[in-house]
Every structure is written in structure tokens, then in C-alpha cells.
């Protein structure tokens, strides 16, 4: 399992509402925590796809980059601004 390891996908910066105004997702663990705990709603189609893709990526069944694409679609669906972090 690749729960909290660094992933091959480029980090994503998100602008959220509420307690934390912005966050950077660098690992699958970061993403899982955000999707389960801090996502603004949990009933969108893209959200459900992203949750499944995250689990699949943690289990090594899909590439982290495939998860990242699903994650960005879920952020768009939720109205969350997402930026790719470039080093």
C-alpha cells in the first residue's frame, strides 16, 4: 500500500472554504483525508469516482496520475479552485 508515500502525481493546491482556506495535496494519504474529512459535499458523481480512484491508487490498482485526474474533476464539480504546484 502507498498510503502516505510521495506519489508520482504533481502536488495540487486547493482553495477551500471554512477552517482551512488552502491546502496542498502531495500524497494519496493527504488526498484520502481531504476527501473523507474536509470535502464540501459527499454526494457528487465525480466525488464518488475520486474516492474510488484514491482507494484503487492506495492499493496499487491504478496509477497515482489517474487518481489525480479524478481528483481534479471532483474539485471542479465541488467548485474548489485547484492549482498544479510546479517545482
UniProtKB/TrEMBL annotation:
Extract the Pfam families matched here.
DUF982 (PF06169)
Name its species.
Rhizobium mesosinicum
Q: Gene3D superfamilies of this UniProt entry? A: 6.10.250.730
- Name of the featured protein: DUF982 domain-containing protein
Q: Which InterPro entries match?
A: DUF982
- Could you name the domain of life of the organism this protein comes from? Bacteria
Amino acid at each position: 500500500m502507498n498510503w502516505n508515500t510521495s506519489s508520482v502525481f504533481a502536488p495540487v493546491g486547493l482553495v477551500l472554504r471554512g477552517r482551512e482556506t488552502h491546502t496542498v495535496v502531495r500524497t494519496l494519504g493527504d488526498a484520502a483525508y481531504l476527501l473523507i474529512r474536509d470535502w464540501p459535499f459527499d454526494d457528487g458523481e465525480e466525488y464518488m469516482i475520486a474516492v474510488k480512484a484514491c482507494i484503487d491508487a492506495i492499493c496499487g490498482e491504478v496509477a497515482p496520475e489517474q487518481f489525480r485526474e479524478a481528483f481534479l474533476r471532483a474539485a471542479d464539480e465541488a467548485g474548489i479552485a485547484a492549482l498544479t504546484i510546479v517545482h
